Structures are given as C-alpha cells and as structure tokens.
C-alpha cells in the first residue's frame, strides 16, 4: 500500500477507472515524458497516496524529490499541475499548510504525493528545477 500519514486528516481521493495520460515537464533536464496511466496497475510504488502524481511518476520512471517519503510532511514534492487540475482531489488543509513552506508557489501548485487525478482528463505536470537543486545543495 502507498504511504499514508496517520497524523493528518485523510485526503478524499477518487481513483481513475479508465486509462489517461500524464505529461511530465521536467524543468531540470528540459525533458518531456508522456505516460499512460493504467488504473489496473495502481499503485505503481510505495510512496505518496495511491494514484498520486508521485506514485505515477514512479511508474513513469520520472524522479520527483520526496524527502518525507510521501506523507505530506516536507513539500519537496512540490509540482505544478498546468492542465487537468480540476480532475484532481481538492488539497486538504494539511497539504495547503505544507505547500506554504515551498518556494515558487503558483495557483497550480500541489504536493505530488497528495494530488490524485481521477482520470477524467489528461494531466500536464511541471516539475520545478529549483526543488531538486535545493535538496542536492543541502539548503
Ligand atoms: S514527499 Fe514530502 S510532502 Fe510530499
């Protein structure tokens, strides 16, 4: 089972029932990766909520930092959902509080480990480069 933080209110998520596509824009490498999400294969990994952007990134072989192990306690998994945000679960207060600690917030910002698309739309995700650098340089 994917990681869950027992100390926070559970996010209300809706898992997809049909295949959909996530496009990852990786700012650090300027790579674009398109991945087809297959609901039958969820969860792809053990970090983040089942079906979250972080979970799907694992399946797509896309690296997103996740210092706390995907339990809504670090904000290093900050991503921006530039398309399909309406198809994702609403951020909980705990997610919003944690997001407030991330740099470069936009209205499209979410925690990758807490954001679960329901598959009714294709999704486009930007992974900011500075997030990785911040962790690598130990700031
Ligand atoms: S991995 Fe720590 S908040 Fe998402």
UniProtKB/TrEMBL annotation:
InterPro entries in the record = 2Fe-2S_ferredoxin-like_sf (IPR036010), 2Fe-2S_ferredoxin-type (IPR001041), Adrenodoxin-like (IPR001055), Beta-grasp_dom_sf (IPR012675)
- Parts of the chain that traverse the membrane: none
Q: Taxonomically, which superkingdom?
A: Bacteria
**Record's PROSITE patterns?**
2FE2S_FER_2
Protein's GO biological process = P450-containing electron transport chain
Q: Which cofactor does it need?
A: [2Fe-2S] cluster
Q: Which GO terms describe its molecular function?
A: 2 iron, 2 sulfur cluster binding; electron transfer activity; metal ion binding
Assigned protein family: Belongs to the adrenodoxin/putidaredoxin family.
| Name used for this protein in its record | 2Fe-2S iron-sulfur cluster binding domain-containing protein
User: What species is given as this protein's source?
Assistant: Telmatocola sphagniphila
